[in-house]
Amino acid sequence: MATQRGTHLTAIQHLPRSSLMQAQAPSHLSAQSMGFRTGQAAATDVERQENALSEALVSQFLAADVVVIGAPLYNFSIPSQLKAWIDRLAQAGRTFKYTDKGPVGLAGGKTVIVASSRGGVYSTSEGGQAMEHQESYLKVVFGFFGITDVRFVRAEGVAMGPDAKAAALVNADRDVQAHTAAAANQASVTQAA
């Protein structure tokens, strides 16, 4: 069963709001939304709603075999709405645990595919790579959750003119086809074993 959730398609708090879109995005962490982290019983309706949202998001994430994230590169990093979603997933005892040797991820065995759009080109030069904090952050956070199969599909240079945009989309489509073929081969190998 496929489930789609537009976690960062919507505005959260400091960005313009749309009631239709706002219903899909988790709010940023606050005193009212921290109950899932502290284990405290919800005292208000707002806290109960926030805890229920956190539970729904982490349960949905844990049930998935493949997670596909569409995320533009905003000012060298991820959109705040995607960060709000990740903050709801980062739950000790659910997606990771603390041990005497350090944290250990509990959500391994998944594949995360990130489809990223970027106005400029960041992947092909040392200077661009130094400014890019989207892929590095997502690799670290999903690695923290125990996920080692994190793949990226990039549409880079989409703001550099029509020709660059067209080339970026062709390259991104090629990457999607390669990931699809790899996933199909992996499924065939798994079924044969």
Pick out its properties.
193 residues; alpha/beta; Rossmann fold; three-stranded parallel β-sheet; two-stranded antiparallel sheet; 5 strands
Task: Characterise this structure.
By secondary structure, this protein is of the alpha/beta class. It has a single domain (47-192), classed as Rossmann fold. Helix content is 44%, strand content 16%. The chain is built from 7 helices and 5 strands. The chain has helices spanning 19-22, 35-38, 45-63, 80-89, 126-131, 134-144, 162-192, and strands spanning 66-72, 96-99, 102-105, 111-118, 149-156. A 3-stranded parallel β-sheet has the order 1-4-5. It has a two-stranded antiparallel ribbon with strand order 2-3. A hairpin with a 2-residue loop joins strand 2 (96-99) and strand 3 (102-105). The longest helix has 31 residues, at 162-192. The model is unreliable at 10-23 (pLDDT under 50).
